[in-house]
Write a structure and sequence with these properties.
heterodimer; A: alpha/beta; four-stranded parallel β-sheet; 4 helices; 43% helix; B: alpha/beta; Rossmann fold; FAD/NAD(P)-binding domain; 5 domains; 26% strand
């Protein structure tokens, strides 16, 4: 019998304690489903993610890394979005040098109530990662 | 020192263990390096387990503890306190969230949920292995609270905070205080009117030096965080000078030619463009509704205190906590829902209550004397097809109370209650009993047998197959049909959007936990109270307001707050000073220092906020963050695979 179970990509999410973590928690509260292979590490701010952590995740076997960025809600300042964007751009270059598809690193701004947006993002990211691995 | 870690995996009743095999999780980690203890527990937060944890930590000399349970938002502090009670530094405690981020979102995949829970616990263990004892950082907390909304909940919260010695800014968007309560006539159980309650409360406010009331005021911007919020408040002008001559003001109201629907009376009558709702309303000064004023100048002819030159003011307030008491809107029936706006004698419960207030000797509507009143319950609540699945709780009692009031005030009234089961809980049951004894008729229907309303000539007929008489078809010729509408969240959610307050499935503001942290939100320092959190009657609103006031006070009372001791750590040997970290830091916490021929970055730890913005820009990777070092994060990544 063919295996019809949907495939699930291993996705590492860098979320933030004050902004995106509450949104991810609320997705659970609202029983919004997403693949259980999505795992989260919480940080104070998305603009503190080191490229080496992202590369480490790929080297060890994660299919994708998703940065749930604070965006304009960041309590540490308005520059957060730009700085997180810079980290992603810099890491994309490093990924290219290592022949890793840059699309495997994704970033989106998530507010503390963006539960549905989070689920939508990780589901579509999961689909992309499954397709691109075939 | 060798690590000795204890693990506790919570069932959370069945919230976790219904979807996650907690015994399997325990088995998967109990033989890992450094694990000295692994237990499952029905409720990790329960007193019994907390005491057991204290004994375990003390007796086994554990120097690392992990609890895998609900969100850290709910119980991180609980288990940190347990650690402290056992003599363990609270920052050597690590929390794994296997409820909000595992069992609930993956309730459709028990195997996947269990595997994820194992990974989350292993990642927490990886962090606990490296967790060092730390001391908290302390910041100054503003000893002031902003209460948003001056209805009964907001006023009671302000008074409570004032009693405790806190400066309060009471910010009301409308021109007058009192909120919904001011709109109601007699209120159960005291039978005081809403006006009387609000008048009594605001007289109390006026006697306080530490409460400042702003009306027509809106928070339009905010920054900062718990302990030090900065609010920008815009205050609209009233266009009338204070200390005016009351008679002249009344003349100004009388001569105003503008008539607009009166929202205070739910638009069953009209008001002028210069108005107040009742004479003792606070502030004791009418207001000019500038949106509808035609600037005809008639009022200025009879009253010298009209002043159209007044301008909007902008205030900047600094507070340690924000207390939300923004109330609710009544549900507005859809077009033609039970004939609303199509049949002329169909009104809502709030309109009916204002009708009772506005009529004196006879109950009249649309020029007709009212004798037979049909009340249709659960309009906009407990919806089968709509979004409002919840029960609004207050409406059964409110309707029966109003029906009794109508009978007592006007006599010769027949009340017919078309209900889906009366929910007059607690002492409110006495009203139900009283109304039955007074001869009110109760007819019951289920959601699949809603009453029909139609016109037969000039008559309005309400027909139902009554459950209580074995589905006998019964008809009432009603002079007035009252749709018993429930509560819905405020349509204008500007302040909620500004503060990014989460909303629950019912779209009201959401607390962290219904029982354990009922007035706190995930936005640290912002508390919620009253009906902005969900349907509540006046008593329940006041109770929650007092609770929220106590919570806000606990934040500002000491004048300082302990913050996480998370700061950047610079490895000066590895730093070659390029200046990128200083440029990235939004707080100017990093400066260059020169030691002989070596230049390197140094951190001002009193200014550093621990955001980590300096970390990724360092080309020599010479900066780490306390509790988020490369070693900790990379070990966690390894554990999550």
């Amino acid at each position: 019998m063919p295996n019809t179970a949907p495939q699930k990509a291993k996705i590492l999410v860098f979320s933030t304690e004050k902004i995106s973590d509450p949104a991810i928690d609320m997705a659970g509260l609202l029983k919004l489903h997403y693949p259980p292979t999505v795992n989260t590490i919480t940080l104070p701010c998305s603009s503190g993610v080191k490229p080496r952590w992202i590369l480490h995740a790929f080297e060890k076997g994660f299919d994708g890394v998703f940065i749930a960025a604070d965006g304009s809600d960041c309590s540490y300042g308005e520059s957060c979005t730009e700085k997180t964007g810079n980290i992603v751009a810099k890491t994309h270059e490093m990924m290219k040098e290592r022949n890793i598809d840059p699309a495997r690193l994704k970033m989106a701004a998530l507010c503390s109530v963006c539960s549905e947006a989070f689920v939508k993002h990780v589901k579509s990211f999961n689909e992309y990662l499954i397709k691109s691995s075939k | 020192m060798k690590k000795k870690i204890g693990i506790y995996i919570c069932h959370c009743g069945g919230n976790i263990s219904d979807y996650v095999d907690v015994e399997k999780v325990k088995k998967a980690v109990e033989n890992d390096a450094d694990i000295f203890l692994a237990k499952t527990t029905m409720f990790a937060c329960g007193d019994t387990n907390q005491n057991e944890m204290v004994d375990d930590i003390t007796n086994m000399k554990l120097n690392g503890v992990v609890v895998a349970s609900c969100s850290p938002k709910l119980h991180l502090q609980t288990f940190r306190s347990v650690s402290e009670r056992a003599g363990l530094n609270k920052y050597q405690y690590v929390h794994a969230n296997i409820r909000e981020q595992v069992s609930w979102p993956h309730s459709d995949d028990k195997l996947g949920a269990t595997e994820k829970a194992i990974k989350q616990v292993k990642a927490a263990i990886a962090k606990a292995r490296l967790a060092e004892p730390l001391e908290p950082m302390t910041i100054t907390a503003q000893k002031a609270v902003a209460v948003i909304g001056a209805g009964v909940a907001g006023i009671k919260a302000a008074l409570q905070l004032s009693d405790m010695g806190t400066q309060v800014y009471l910010i009301e968007r409308e021109p007058f205080v009192g909120g919904r309560t001011a709109q109601w006539e007699r209120i159960f159980t005291s039978n005081e009117t809403g006006k009387e309650i609000i008048s009594r409360l605001y007289k109390d406010i006026l006697s306080r030096d530490n409460i400042t009331v702003f009306t027509q005021a809106e928070v339009v911007d905010y920054s900062g965080s718990i302990g030090d919020f900065k609010l920008m408040v815009k205050v609209a002008p009233r266009f009338i000078r204070e200390h005016c001559v009351e008679d002249n003001l009344q003349k100004a109201i009388d001569v105003c030619p503008v008539e607009v629907p009166d929202s205070f009376n739910f638009e069953i009558n009209s008001r002028k463009a210069i108005y107040n709702h009742y004479p003792s309303e606070y502030p004791y000064l009418p207001v000019i509704d500038i949106q509808n004023c035609t600037r005809c100048g008639e009022c200025e002819k009879v009253c010298k205190n009209i002043d159209f030159s007044q301008k909007e003011e902008t205030l900047n307030l600094q507070v340690g906590s924000i207390l939300m008491a923004t109330g609710f809107d009544p549900y507005t029936p859809a077009d033609n829902e039970y004939g609303y706006k199509h049949i002329d004698n169909v009104i809502t419960l709030p309109q009916f209550k204002r009708l009772l207030a506005l009529n004196d000797s006879k109950l009249m509507y649309n020029g007709k004397v009212i004798k037979n009143i049909a009340y249709i319950y659960c309009v906009g609540s407990r919806q089968v097809n709509g979004d409002n699945k919840y029960c609004s709780r207050y409406c059964c009692t409110s309707t029966i109370h109003a029906a009794i009031h109508a009978k007592e005030k006007f006599g010769n009234i027949n009340n017919y209650h078309f209900n889906r089961g009366i929910r007059t809980y607690g002492k409110q049951e006495l009203l139900y009993d009283e109304s039955s004894r007074m001869g009110d008729i109760y007819l019951q229907f289920f959601e699949d047998g809603e009453p029909q309303i139609y016109k037969e000539g000039n008559k309005t007929i309400v027909k139902v197959k009554d459950v209580l008489t074995k589905y006998k078809e019964l008809e009432v010729e009603a002079d007035l049909v009252v749709l018993v509408t429930g509560m819905v969240p405020r349509k204008d959610n500007a302040i909620g959007s500004l503060l990014k307050l989460p909303r629950g499935r019912d779209k009201f503001f959401n607390e962290i936990h219904m029982k354990l942290r009922p007035v706190e939100t995930v936005i640290d320092g912002v508390a919620i109270s009253g009906a902005c959190q969900g349907p509540k009657n006046v008593t329940e609103s006041v109770n929650s307001a007092l609770s929220a006031a106590t919570k806000s006070f606990s934040i500002v009372s000491k004048g300082e707050i302990d913050l996480e001791p998370v700061i950047a750590i610079i490895d000066k040997d590895n730093c070659t000073w390029c200046g990128a970290c200083a440029e990235a830091c939004p707080y100017d916490a990093i400066q260059k220092t020169v030691d002989g021929d070596k230049s390197y970055a140094v951190l001002n730890s009193t200014v550093c906020k621990g955001c980590g913005m300096c970390l990724p820009v360092c080309p020599s990777d010479a900066i780490d963050l306390t509790a988020y070092s490369n070693h900790e994060i990379e070990n966690m990544i390894d554990a999550l695979l």
